[in-house]
């Protein structure tokens, strides 16, 4: 019985064998000039909308090297078809999965679990079935097709695989990530999952309503971001950190924070009271992999965790180079740190992401070996971080700030 217990615990570990990020071709890059063309050909915009978009783009932290889907280049962004969505997924799956399997030397027949997540596209047969057909995976493979989970879907997918590993020995599962609980493959693993915490505030109306896909008065589908979003995100982050902190931080740091919090509460009404104590996540974490939801998101997490500019650099550079790629953004941030050769064996890396619902998910990985393999950053990593992250939108389109609503006409 003792042997069975020990053996079962050995196979409940979750290792990341490899991962692969997708990099489109250079003809898909969205330059400042092309972005302006896209905005100008939208006949539903007026002066106020132009000013708002300019302000949003300038402060977004996104550079000119990011990419767009093919239908945008064909001028069909207002009426994308189902085929557009499917072809975009095929392009990603065929490139990333092919490279992932080749680099890891794993045969498709060895994969036992397949978890696919996609923000909004729902097709029949499912995307999971499409991958099974493409790579001729086994008939007894366990499949999970997740949709609508938004930017936090990666950690939800990992959690699903982690739970499957708890009841099944010697399994592998993969998409852009290849995970396993096979002890025999431990020496090949890049990371070992130490713990994962998911926080969901969907029962609260202010959290559920703050980020919704909906139609406007004219029937156009888009995303509504409510004024309660910052509050909902902060609450989800705080609750998530409260749960995961005891799992990843040393006892001495937890005791220090507890004593500091007690003393502040004790003297909060006196002159002896200081500022709010901040828990030091660096006491148990070496690297921070943050969701690139936007410049404000990165700044907010950095302030909450008291992180340095070096800690925030991978997320900022990923936002500048690749933009907000939703659930996959964490892996581009991870790729940046690997390309910079920051990971050493034994290091701890903290991942955190947000998603509509409202959700906040986080996890801690342990680095299993020194890392520095080539990835999507290979051709540009030496030029990052650039001296200036400012994009040229204000320089090119700043004149619109001086336009008058009564005399403004859409430029040709």
Would you mind describing this structure in some detail?
Helix 11 (295-305) runs antiparallel to helix 12 and helix 12 (309-322) packs across helix 13 (329-339). By secondary structure, this protein is an alpha+beta fold. Helix content is 39%, strand content 16%. It has helices spanning 2-10, 32-40, 47-58, 70-73, 82-104, 127-135, 153-165, 205-208, 229-248, 251-266, 295-305, 309-322, 329-339, 393-397; strands at residues 15-19, 113-118, 142-147, 172-174, 177-180, 191-200, 211-215, 221-225, 287-290, 348-355, 359-367. The model has no long low-confidence stretch (mean pLDDT 88). It has one domain (2-249, 284-391): 3-Layer(aba) Sandwich (Peroxisomal Thiolase, Chain A, domain 1). The radius of gyration is 23 Å and the shape is globular. It is built from 14 helices and eleven strands. The chain has a seven-stranded mixed β-sheet. Strands 2-3 form a two-stranded parallel ribbon.
Rounded to the nearest angstrom, the distance between the terminal CA atoms is 78 Å
The 3D shape can be described as: globular
Low-confidence stretches: none
Rg over CA atoms = 23 Å
The total domain count is: 1
Order of helices and strands: HEHHHHEHEHEEEHEEHHEHHHEEH
Number of helices: 14
How can the largest sheet be summarized? 7 strands, mixed
Count the beta strands.
11
Helix share bin: 25-40%
Task: Estimate what percentage of residues fall within beta strands.
Answer: 15-25%
**Strands across the major sheet, in which order?**
4-5-1-6-11-10-9
> Roughly what is the average pLDDT, rounded to an integer?
88
The fourth-level CATH homologous superfamily is: Thiolase/Chalcone synthase
CATH topology: Peroxisomal Thiolase, Chain A, domain 1
**For this structure, what is the CATH class?**
Alpha Beta
Catalytic activity: a very-long-chain acyl-CoA + malonyl-CoA + H(+) = a very-long-chain 3-oxoacyl-CoA + CO2 + CoA
Domain Beta-ketoacyl-[acyl-carrier-protein] synthase III C-terminal: 285-366
EC number: 2.3.1.-
Organism: Nyssa sinensis
């Amino acid at each position: 019985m003792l042997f069975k217990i020990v053996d079962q615990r050995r196979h409940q570990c979750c290792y990341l064998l490899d991962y692969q990020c997708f990099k489109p071709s250079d003809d898909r890059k969205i330059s400042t000039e092309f972005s302006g063309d896209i905005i100008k050909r939208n006949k539903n915009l007026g002066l106020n909308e132009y000013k708002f978009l300019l302000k949003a783009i300038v402060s977004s932290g996104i550079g000119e090297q990011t990419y767009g889907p093919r239908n945008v280049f064909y001028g069909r962004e207002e009426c994308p078809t189902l085929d557009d969505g499917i072809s975009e997924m095929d392009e990603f799956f065929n490139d990333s999965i092919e490279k992932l399997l080749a680099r890891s030397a794993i045969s498709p027949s060895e994969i036992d679990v397949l978890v696919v997540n996609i923000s909004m596209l729902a097709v029949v047969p499912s995307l999971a079935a499409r991958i099974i057909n493409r790579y001729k995976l086994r008939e007894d493979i366990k499949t999970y097709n997740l949709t609508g989970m938004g930017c936090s879907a990666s950690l939800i997918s990992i959690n699903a695989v982690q739970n499957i590993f708890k009841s099944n020995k010697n399994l592998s599962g993969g998409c852009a990530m290849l995970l396993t609980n096979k002890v025999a493959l431990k020496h090949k693993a890049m990371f070992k999952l130490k713990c994962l915490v998911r926080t969901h505030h969907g029962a609260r109306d202010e959290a559920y309503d703050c980020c919704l896909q909906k139609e406007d008065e004219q029937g156009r589908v888009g995303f509504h971001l409510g004024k309660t979003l910052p509050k909902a995100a902060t609450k989800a982050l705080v609750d998530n950190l409260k749960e995961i902190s005891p799992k990843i931080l040393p006892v001495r740091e937890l005791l220090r924070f507890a004593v500091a919090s007690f003393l502040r509460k004790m003297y909060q009404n006196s002159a002896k009271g200081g500022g709010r104590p901040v828990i030091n996540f660096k006491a148990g974490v070496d690297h921070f992999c943050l969701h690139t939801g936007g410049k404000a998101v990165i700044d907010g997490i950095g302030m909450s965790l008291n992180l340095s500019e070096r800690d925030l650099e991978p997320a900022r550079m990923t936002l500048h180079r690749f933009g907000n790629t939703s659930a996959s953004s964490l892996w581009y941030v991870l790729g940046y740190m690997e390309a910079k050769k920051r990971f050493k064996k034994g290091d701890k890396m903290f991942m955190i992401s947000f998603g509509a619902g409202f959700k906040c998910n986080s996890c801690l990985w342990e680095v299993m070996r020194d890392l520095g393999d080539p990835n999507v950053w290979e051709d540009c990593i030496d030029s990052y971080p650039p001296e200036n992250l400012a994009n040229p939108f204000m320089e090119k389109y700043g004149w619109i700030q001086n336009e008058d609503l009564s005399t403004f006409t859409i430029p040709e």
